[in-house]
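So, can you check these tokens?
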Amino acid sequence: MAVTLSTSLSEQTRADQNEDWYQVELIVFSQQDLYQNERHPTNITLEYPQNWQRLESDTSTSADNPRPAEQSLIPLETKDFSLGPDEYTLSRAAGYRVLTHIGWRQPGLGQAQSPWIIVSGGHRHGNHHELEGSIRLVVTRYLHIQADIWKTSFASTPGTGGALPGNPVRPDNWPRLPVKPWLSALPVSDDASPVTTIDTNSPVDQRHPPIKKIVVLNQSEQVDLNKPTYLDHPEMGVLVLVTRHTSTAAD
């Protein structure tokens, strides 16, 4: 009986990379740090991975919007979400705010092959969002969700909390927010003068209000099929649901 149970559990979480497809759905939310005793280091590294993909539909494959690899993901439509009730509960609970709710289907891929999914959400400031980073599903012997995301708090008015990118005076010592990977090949101005306006129409415009704080969630957790998994942080969290995708439709 023990052998049978062990085999059953192993088969549930082990992936055949040639056949198995998975559906991944996640909600990233901010939460109020009630104790406010968390000290966030400023000597952090923010970067996007090399093996990335976007869930957004692309209308162009020109040099202005390059893709690093063949698309191997199928974005989920809202009607296919299972965590809708959880999003509703979070949106109505005091101290919580949903930053993004996304989902996709993908084949079971290992550490070297599985792409990182670019995520963003929350309030937009210039060409940046409150939430940025990447998340992916990795299949080894078991399923793992890996997250490298950060939440930036911006000052509401210039002159508080820090300096703008390009300004040599940076009293807050927060690192510069990384350029979105699909924009990194485009030219960026070397002008080091302070910027006082935001041009949201420019795809390479990295200007934004001063940074007050950046918190990072960098975690890897084993997940069980059909069971919600939490990645927790004093100021934000990730709710993940992974299921096996067995549809034989065109997708």
Notes: Helices lie at 2-13, 84-92. Confidence is low (pLDDT under 50) at residues 3-18, 57-66, 157-171, 188-205. The chain is about 10% helix and 35% strand. Strands lie at 21-31, 52-53, 74-75, 96-107, 116-125, 128-139, 143-154, 211-223, 229-232, 236-245.
